[in-house]
Each structure stands twice: as structure tokens, then as C-alpha cells.
Automatic annotation (TrEMBL):
GO terms for molecular function: carbohydrate:proton symporter activity. GO terms for cellular component: membrane. This is Putative quinate permease. It comes from Colletotrichum sidae. The chain crosses the membrane at residues 25-52, 72-93, 105-124, 130-152, 164-183, 195-218, 291-313, 333-351, 360-381, 393-421, 433-452, 464-485. Belongs to the major facilitator superfamily. Sugar transporter (TC 2.A.1.1) family. It comes from the Eukaryota. The gene is qutD-8. The keyword Transport applies. InterPro entries: MFS_dom, MFS_sugar_transport-like, MFS_Sugar_Transporters, MFS_trans_sf, Sugar/inositol_transpt, Sugar_transporter_CS. Residues 30-489 form the Major facilitator superfamily (MFS) profile domain. The keyword Membrane applies. It is found in: Membrane.
Amino acid sequence: MGTSLIQKIVKNEAMKQDPPEIYGWRVYALACSACFGGLIFGIDTGVIGGVLRMREFRDLYNLNNMSNLERANLGANIVSTLQAGCFVGALLAAQAADRFGRRPVLIWAAGGISVIGVILQAAASGQLAAMYVGRFVSGFGTGFASMVNPLYVAENAPRAIRGGLTGIYQLFIVMGIFLAYWINYGCVQNVSGTAIYMIPLVIQGAPPLLLMISMFLCNESPRHLAKQDKWEEALSVLSSIRSLPPDHPYVAAEFADIRAAIEEENAILDGANWMSLQKEMWLVPSNRKRAIISILLMFFQQMTGTNAINYYAPQIFATLGVEGTENELFATGIYGLVKLIAVLVFLIFVADSLGRRKSLIWTGIGQGLTMLYVGIFIVVAKPGEQEGSQVSAAGYVALICVFLFACMFQFGWGPCCWIYVSEIATTRLRATNVSYAAATQWLFNFVISRAVPPMLETMGSGGFGTYIFFCSWCFLMAAFVWFFIPETKGLSLEAMNELFGFHEDAKHKRADLENSSVNVETKGSVAQIEESESPAKI
């Protein structure tokens, strides 16, 4: 029943061609297990904005005795320290994932390190330095998760539903944000004293523990095993997750494609150390194109302004006329619910049917229009200057625009970027490609989370310039996708080489190798002739 429903919902050629057995429970359980890494990301993101608005936390860390700008800067420092750790973790994750495997890195680096970071945050007790260290350590583990999680799912997923399965990572991010928003609201409503902020901070430890437990029950990626020359184990794992015997034609064909792709890459490229992989990524045209696209997609994802709202939603709703901490957190919780519903609809009905390219273009335009309205509303209505007044009709439209922005982000730039960067690279470079993309995401996540509070204070009345700034980027990124992003829905991971022109690069490389070989042989022959014709030495 479940398989037939999937076949009715997902509309692409691969779904029509591939056997229904491969869409069994195993592949969904595997994807959900790994995607607890996204829950780490989401709860970390959602908790901190609400905690920073809690009076008890402000008293403990002396935030109430600061000016608005000083408080904004300190809050930005607390938020952005996590992103700094994420950036470092994401950069280091590729080599760890290639050397030790995807599964062990998810268990020990993503899960274990994140738990340590949560303990440090909860134990900080007013010590700002300890809070910074805890946030950085949590970020370090989250950075590993953000790189390995989509990579692992993409390498295990059937091609017809790879978009939806990889997008579960975004679903778990949004679910984490949603849960964090309502945990904050529940604590403000029902808890007093230090527990009001301690409960949200401690709950951050649940997702990494769930990740560690669930990943103990999962297999290693078959493509990683194949890359390590563990061919028998790779075939066994592939057969298991496809729910088909090893000699089934579909499994045999997919395994043959994996072997052919790895052997082709190994035949024309040198070694697998860090420097050789960098040369391979930046000097081979098709690989360079994929790396640049991945980095730019993640840069643009952050320039939508989504994390400006995720981290500072209560503050942003206050600028739109929603007053009082409880009301701000309630509006933030509704925002999280809207995002959760939107990403569910996207993963079920859109990801592998409409595809990546159209989703990115139309949602980029839609996000720009919603940000534009919010900016204009703040200029005209000046809601932050009218204390005690009711939210106007135009103000409600602005709130609706924020919710529409959330929907459109979840229909495009949220899940599609993670899906795209995890699927387009070669087998040898996939971990490195996702690592650079994830690091870029965290770098500009850091920049945005650090910059937004001062932007809201300084970029025009009510911070309207902040929304115009993000609006401009949304229109620009839609144009970028129109000109530079090819569609990948329904293609196998190995088919990406043909889509991006790797086979042509391989032909040129082989020709160069053959020419150099001929030149060496020719020079050797000439040297032998000259030696034979030279006079004998006495």
C-alpha cells in the first residue's frame, strides 16, 4: 500500500522504471535515523532566540543593564558562536567521513561532541566565557552532522525519491525549530526561576543522543564501502537497503554503475590525499563547476534572510507590532508550525516531481516579494514606534508575508540546496563538495546571525533596510538558478558525471595521458638510435 501511494505521488521517469521493492521501510528508517542530525541543528537554532528574550536569562547574564545596541551585540555573539563551531566542524568533516566512514562520524563526532557542548551550556550558570565555549563545542558537532547527514542519505537513497529522502534533513531542522519555539513558549507560560531557560538548554541534548542510538542500528554507505575497495560488503549493504537479492538485475545494474564510476575516476585521477583531491576539484572543469555551484547555492540560501527570522523571530515580530514576550513567542511558534507543514508538503508532493530547478526559481521570486512588502510596511506604518496600539490590517498582511516567506523557503531554498549539493559531485569528491558547501552555509549563517541585530537597529526606522537587503538577494538568486542550474530529479548519482560533462573531461585527460606516453616512448626510441649510432668508446 505504501509503495503504491508513493508511485502515485512521485512523478518522474525513474519511479516508472525501478522495481517497487526498493521503496520499503528500510530506506526511510535509515534516512530518519541519520536526520536526527538535522534535529540537532534545528533545536540549537530555535532555542537560543527565545532564551535571549527571557528575563531570568537576561538577569543572569546582565543583559538588562545594557543599551539596546550592546544587548543586540552580546546576543549576536552568543548566537553566532555556535555557527563558528559549525564552520570548523563542517570543514574538518570531509576528511573524517572519507577516512573513518559516514556512520562512525555521525555517531561519535556529530552526536558525542554535541552532547558535550550542551552540558557545557547548561553548566555555564552566568559565566559568559563558559557559554561561548559550550556553544562553540555544540556547533562543532552540529557542523559534522550538517556535512555528513545529507551525504549519507543521498548515498543510500534510491534515485527516484532521493530528493524527498535527503530533504528529510530539512524537515528535521524545521521540526527542531518548531519544537524549540513551543518549548520556549511552554516554559515562559508554566515555569519560573532558572528552570525557565535551563529546560530549553538541556533539551538540546536529546537529538544528539537519538542520533547516536539510531545510527548504531544502521549500515555504512555502500558507495563509501565501494570507494574503500570493500566490494563484497558494499554489494551486501546495497542489496539489504534495496530489499532485493544481490543477483537481482536492478541491484546488479546499480552496483555496476557504482563500480564503473569509481574505476573511471580512479583511472584518470591521481591519489586520494587532500592535495590531489583539491587539484581534482578545482582543475577539472566539470568538478570545478559543481563545486562553485554548491558554494554559491549555500551562500544564497543564507542571503534569503531565513536565519535572521529563525534566530530573532521574537524580536522581528516585535518590530511588526506584536508586543509582550508571551505574544512574541506564540507568534514565533505559529511561524514554526507553518514551516513544518510547508516542508512536509514539499517533500511529499514536490521534491521529486516538480524538481530542484523550478522550485528554486519560483520560491526565490516569492521570497523577494514578501520581504519587499515587509520592508515597505515598516517604512510607511512604523509599527515599532506605536506602543500599546493594535496590530493594523496592513500589519497582519506583513505577518502573513513572514509566514508566506517561511512556506516558500521550505518549498525551495531550504531543502533543495541540501539535496542538490549532496548529489551532484563525483564519488571521490562528494564528501569534500558537501563539506565546502556546508562550511559556506555556516560561515554566512554566522555572518547573518552576527549582523542582523545591529542591522535591525541601524538600517533605517524599524530596520526596514534589513528586509530590502534580503529582498534584493532573493531576486538575484532566482536569476542565478535560471542561468546556471541544471535539473537533477530522477537521475542516479553516477549519472551526474554525464550531466556536468565529466566524461568529456575524462576523454581529454586520457588523450593527454596517451600523448604523454607516446612522447616518452618516442624520446626513448630516439635516444636508443642516437646511442647506437654514436662511435664506440674506448
